[in-house]
Amino acid sequence: MVDFVPIRTYRNHADKGVAYPRWQPMGIRISLWDGSGWATRGGKDKVDWSKGPFIASFANYTIDACVWKGNARFCRADSSSNWWNKEEFTSLSWKQRRWFKWVRKYHLIYDYCQDNKRFNNNLPKECYLSKY
């Protein structure tokens, strides 16, 4: 979420055979894309390199997670004491769904679940399952 607006979801469909990061440690990374065809709709969205240098940064963010030391399995991700396992966080609210659809409509450039060419018309399983 960015300012409480969901910009991406990846629902846990492990029970349906879709890989989901349940037991491994996670981190935050950032990168700037290079204007490759996959991210520019085959070159339709032009990159204005004269606006460089391009800088990306994080500011005023909070990470609230299970902090572990040593074996990640000792950080019980499925514990009911973790806020993210509470019922209210298992799906997006109607307001969040509306914002999520708005973000996708006006800001989404690339969605691998719509890239039939990349996957030879054999999209990954999660593309056919609920996003929220």
What does this protein look like?
- There is one protein chain.
- By secondary structure, this protein is low in regular secondary structure.
- The chain is 11% helix and 0% strand.
- It has 1 helix and no strands.
- It has one helix at residues 94-107.
- The longest helix is centred in the C-terminal third of the chain and has 14 residues, at 94-107.
- The two termini are 13 Å apart.
Q: In brief, what are we looking at here?
A:
Helix content is 11%, strand content 0%. The chain has one helix and no strands. It has one helix spanning 94-107.
Query: Percent of residues in helical segments?
Result: 10-25%
How many beta-strand runs?
0
Mean pLDDT: 81
Cα radius of gyration in angstroms: 18 Å
> Based on CA inertia axes, which overall geometry fits?
globular
Secondary-structure map:
Layout: H1 94-107
What labels describe this entry?
132 residues; little secondary structure; 1 helix; 11% helix
